[in-house]
Structures are given as structure tokens and as C-alpha cells.
């Protein structure tokens, strides 16, 4: 085929390519505007190099995505089908779809903390469905308006650049802009290589902020959520997930328990399985489940049992001697046999609704109508968490699908038996087992983030390394990080931080 300048086909193709560059240039500006939302979705970098990297990466990476979309779609169409009117219309539609997807991805990232992906599809659908059902008219108008606005922009830009192509070719600023973007692209990758080699987490924690960027590692995920003690890592490679500066913020104002139901709850904690077996032998109306997931650190288990929170908040709460939310509502929790929690009993009384008893003796249940939980502390030290037996006077608890954590026991006691669902939901990360909808949860013990989903438990240790284990059998599972799930779990873990 003759592709000389005198050939009509060649002339049209050349003109369309020139137009395509300006059309892409306009869409780079639109993409930069939309992608600004990613930069404000997370806490900003604290160092100059982190801020510099954020800006140059935003400019270069977003521009590259827009240019790549042009090369893969409009460019080949211009060569194969060089009819200006049709190409300009198709390009406007394609660019509208791309910009709309970028807008949707930005919305998902702002709300969920991760990008569009197949593994995150259930959470994304749930988010969009909740938005649609909560305000259907407004959501439809906003979504439709955004798409129409983008389409209008594309049509205007497409026609303007085509009809003013000769004048646009005379402008020189485009060359400088393209050169600047190329420099930013090279600079961003150079900074990242240097930061990765020198443990500059203020840079590497931004790995997954923009779509189609560097894949997130466990370490960068922890750094992004301020859970990595970076100074210790640099000095001694002995990193502990950072919860030393965490401040516990109790929700305010606290919900009132208007429909309080008078009930008694006894939670018995034994040191050994033998002591637990003796207790069960004396109380034959208890129902068993083997799905009780507890930290092997006894103090962390007991803290979680009393407060309905992971030990992530233990240092802050014990330092301030903050009472459990239920105690502060003058519905007393009485704790027996736990020295570090003795301050709670200062405001307890003989008619405490909930008794948590750590004992090595065969203890006595308050009365026949008392709701009872009983378990023994873990003696295995192979892992941070382990599954064991839980006994309950409530047959429904033994039939709960999935894992049960210590925090779930207090949440169920307050939320279900005492009928204070609002305050349990507002102040605890434990789940009311009567209302459990999914089999996933988060915990924290011995400097390790613990997230579980069905039978798979993911442990992210103090060095940012991760490990998947089976909850039922305890063996290791060879599987990659489920980033959307871990982001969701870490956000939940940090619910009560300031």
C-alpha cells in the first residue's frame, strides 16, 4: 500500500493521529483531575521526598495510563478505519467509558481503600448497592450526571481539537509538557528504586494508591496504615507493629440502652483443659463448639474478652484505666482473678449483670437462668492464635457458622442477652453472634495483625511478613495476600484510634 503524503488514506490517518495526540492530551488533564481524589483518600506523606514522589507519580503515572489507553484503542482504530467523523465519535465514547471507570475506581478507593478487582467484587457490589438503596433518586441523578458530563466534555474536546488542529500544532507548550511528564516518569521510578533499597516507607507505602501501580506488599500495607515501627526496623531489623502511640477514642455520645433486659451472664476462664472438663462435668447442660479462636497470649485474650476489642488498644486503655463502655453505663461488669483489670471492680456491685471469672477451681454459676460461657486458656505457643473448645448454655452459639473470638462473647452478652445492641455495636469490634452475617474478623496479639476469612487466617508479623494458616488444622496455606480483605481488616482494627 502506498502511504505517501499524496495518498488520501495516508493523509487522513496522519491527520487523525495528530488529532489523537491533542485529544489524549486533553484527557490526561481530565484524568489528573479525577485522580486527585486518590491523593486525599489517605494521610499525606510526612517527608519532603514522600511529597515529591506523590506529586511526580501522580503526574507521570496518570498521564501514562491515559496515553496507554489511547495507544491500545483509538490509535489502531485510526489506522484501520480512518474516517474522521466516526473515529471522533468512537473515541469520545471510549474515553467516556475509561474516565467513568476511573471515577468509579476512585470512589471505591476512597470508601474501601482498594481498587476495582475481581477478588473485591462482593464488597464493591455491597458498597454500590448500599449507596443506591439508601438514596436511589439522588444516586441515579449523580451517577448519570457524571457520565453525561464526561461524555459532553469528550464530544466538545473531540470537535474542538479537530476543527482547530492547524492552530494547535503551532503551540509549543505541549512539547514542554510532554518532556516534563517524561522527566516525572523517570524521576518517580528512580525515587521508588532508591526508597525501596533504603527502607523509605514514606515513599513505598504509596505503592498502591494509584490504579495499576506497584503491587502492595504486607510491609507497605502496614506502613500506609501507620502500623509499622519504621525507626526500630532501620536500627535493628526488629520491627514491632506500632501501637505504642495509639490513643483509644471511645465513641461519643454513647448510645443509651433504652430496652435493657435484666439478665445474668457468667463467663468462666480456666487455666487448663482439665479444669474446664471438670466444670463441664458438673454442668451437663452446656453445648460445645471447636471453633473458638483465641490468642495464645493469655493477657491479650482476657483483655479482648472484657472490652470486646483487640489487644491493639490494650496499652492505651490500661494506661488510662478506661472503664469498659458497658461499665460506664452503670451496668456493671465484674472481673475476678485478673490483676491488671482490678480497677474495673471499683465500680462493680453485687448485682453485676456480667461476671468474668478466671479461676482454677470448679466455679459456681449464679443461678439456673444465667447465660454461661466457659473455655480454657491456650497452652500452645506454636502460633499467635489457636482454636479450642468453647462451651455455652446457649445451644444457638454452638451452631454458629465460622470462628468465634473472645470479643464476640462480651458483644453477644451485652448486645443480645442484655438487649443493648446499639452500644455493643458502637463500642466493640466483637460481633453479636446472633447477628453474625459473614465469617471474617480481625484481631491483634503480640505485635501481629490477625485477620481471618472462613478457614484461612492471615498473620502479618512484626517485620511486615505474612503467613496464611488453616484455622481448623493449623497448617500453612500457600496463598498470596488478599489485599482488599486485609485493607478492610486494618481499617476495622483502627476504628477507635484518634
Automatic annotation (TrEMBL):
InterPro entries: YejM_N (IPR024588)
Keyword set includes Ligase: no
Segments passing through the bilayer: 21-41, 61-83, 90-110, 137-161, 173-195
Annotated keywords: Membrane, Transmembrane, Transmembrane helix
Domain Inner membrane protein YejM N-terminal as annotated: residue spans: 7-248
Pfam families assigned to the protein according to its UniProt record, in alphabetical order: DUF3413
UniProt name for this protein: Sulfatase
Species: Pseudoalteromonas carrageenovora IAM 12662
Amino acid at each position: 500500500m502506498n502511504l505517501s503524503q499524496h495518498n488520501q488514506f495516508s493523509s487522513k490517518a496522519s491527520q487523525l493521529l495528530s488529532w489523537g495526540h491533542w485529544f489524549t492530551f486533553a484527557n490526561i488533564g481530565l484524568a489528573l483531575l479525577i485522580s486527585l481524589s486518590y491523593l486525599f483518600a489517605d494521610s499525606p506523606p510526612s517527608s519532603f521526598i514522600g511529597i515529591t514522589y506523590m506529586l511526580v507519580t501522580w503526574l507521570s503515572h496518570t498521564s501514562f495510563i491515559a496515553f496507554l489507553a489511547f495507544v491500545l484503542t483509538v490509535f489502531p482504530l485510526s489506522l484501520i478505519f480512518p474516517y474522521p467523523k466516526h473515529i471522533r465519535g468512537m473515541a469520545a465514547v471510549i474515553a467516556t467509558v475509561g474516565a467513568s471507570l476511573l471515577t468509579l475506581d476512585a470512589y471505591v478507593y476512597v470508601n474501601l481503600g482498594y481498587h476495582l478487582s475481581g477478588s473485591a467484587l462482593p464488597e464493591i457490589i455491597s458498597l454500590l448497592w448500599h449507596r443506591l438503596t439508601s438514596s436511589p433518586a439522588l444516586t441515579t441523578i449523580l451517577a448519570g450526571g457524571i457520565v453525561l458530563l464526561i461524555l459532553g466534555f469528550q464530544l466538545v474536546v473531540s470537535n474542538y481539537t479537530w476543527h482547530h488542529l492547524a492552530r494547535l500544532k503551532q503551540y509549543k507548550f505541549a512539547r514542554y509538557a510532554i518532556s516534563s511528564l517524561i522527566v516525572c516518569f523517570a524521576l518517580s521510578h528512580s525515587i521508588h528504586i532508591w526508597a525501596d533499597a533504603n527502607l523509605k516507607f514514606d515513599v513505598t507505602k504509596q505503592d498502591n494508591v494509584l490504579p495499576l501501580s506497584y503491587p502492595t506488599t504486607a510491609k507497605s500495607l502496614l506502613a500506609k496504615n501507620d502500623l509499622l515501627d519504621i525507626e526500630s526496623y532501620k536500627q535493628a531489623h526488629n520491627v514491632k507493629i506500632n501501637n505504642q502511640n495509639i490513643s483509644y477514642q471511645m465513641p461519643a455520645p454513647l448510645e443509651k440502652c433504652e430496652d435493657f433486659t435484666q439478665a445474668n451472664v457468667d463467663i468462666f476462664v480456666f487455666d487448663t483443659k482439665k479444669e474446664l472438663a471438670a466444670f463441664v462435668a458438673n454442668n451437663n447442660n452446656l453445648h460445645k463448639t471447636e471453633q473458638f479462636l483465641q490468642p495464645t497470649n493469655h493477657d491479650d485474650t482476657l483483655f479482648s474478652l472484657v472490652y470486646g476489642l483487640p489487644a491493639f488498644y490494650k496499652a492505651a486503655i490500661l494506661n488510662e484505666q478506661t472503664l469498659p463502655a458497658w461499665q460506664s453505663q452503670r451496668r456493671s461488669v465484674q472481673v475476678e482473678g485478673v490483676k491488671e483489670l482490678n480497677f474495673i471492680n471499683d465500680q462493680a456491685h453485687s448485682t453485676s449483670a456480667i461476671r468474668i471469672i478466671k479461676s482454677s477451681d470448679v466455679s459456681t454459676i449464679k443461678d439456673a437462668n444465667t447465660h454461661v460461657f466457659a473455655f480454657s486458656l491456650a497452652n500452645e505457643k506454636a502460633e499467635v492464635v489457636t482454636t479450642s473448645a468453647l462451651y455455652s448454655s446457649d445451644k444457638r452459639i454452638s451452631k454458629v457458622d465460622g470462628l468465634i473470638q473472645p470479643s464476640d462473647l462480651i458483644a453477644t452478652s451485652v448486645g443480645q442477652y442484655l438487649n443493648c445492641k446499639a452500644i455493643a455495636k458502637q463500642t466493640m469490634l466483637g460481633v453479636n453472634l446472633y447477628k453474625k452475617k459473614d465469617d471474617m474478623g480481625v484481631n491483634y496479639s503480640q505485635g501481629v495483625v490477625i485477620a481471618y476469612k472462613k478457614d484461612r487466617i492471615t498473620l502479618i508479623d512484626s517485620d511486615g511478613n505474612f503467613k496464611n494458616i488453616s484455622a481448623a488444622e493449623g497448617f500453612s496455606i500457600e496463598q498470596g495476600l488478599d489485599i482488599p480483605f486485609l485493607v478492610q481488616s486494618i481499617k476495622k482494627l483502627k476504628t477507635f484510634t484518634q
